[in-house]
């Protein structure tokens, strides 16, 4: 092989076959590169796009980045269906197979610990959104007879919004506590900004839950039962995902996010 090596994830050896038509970044099929009891999932990518300088330029190109991230995620999703992958950072690239093996050797102990901790587990995401407009039937706003009436209407509207935020916060806290009891670990992420995400409503809970595959069906059913509990609130469930939110915290503080700081890494 003459191209660079793009690394998607590290995992334990597994017997199940990946999808026959699966392609990765740049259209090349992923393959398994074994080192001791670890496997790096890699594919060949062209140097003209993934050498250090062009890669840095591409990372400023939103269309290119979106396409690459989609191909990267397709491989991670395929791996999640058959094993427990430890995803590496988008754009983790090495010169050749030897460089990948050097990286595996250098980080072998940390990879093993993380994979042991995540084995047989997946990540589920739960978001709660407050939607003020869903509290009541749409109607024409009453025309204020005076400035005093206008201010009164504004105060009533503001009070209703405050009550919704308080109710949403109580619901989100209660839901998180309930789900945390059924999960092996949790992460609370910062609420999403609707102006940036394009998702309607105010995000009041953005959480990830590490759940065993054996208990995932029960977890999903629990979330589904909450979706109609509170009017004006929307509950969204995503997953199952590779355990992105739980793969970066090692007891010794080592960041396991695929950062190619070893000398053979050529990515950004």
From TrEMBL:
GO terms for cellular component: gas vesicle. The keyword Cell membrane does not apply. Residues 249-262 have a biased composition (Acidic residues). It is found in: Gas vesicle. Residues 244-268 are annotated as: Disordered. Keywords: Gas vesicle. GO terms for biological process: gas vesicle organization. It comes from the Bacteria. Belongs to the gas vesicle GvpF/GvpL family. This is Gas vesicle protein.
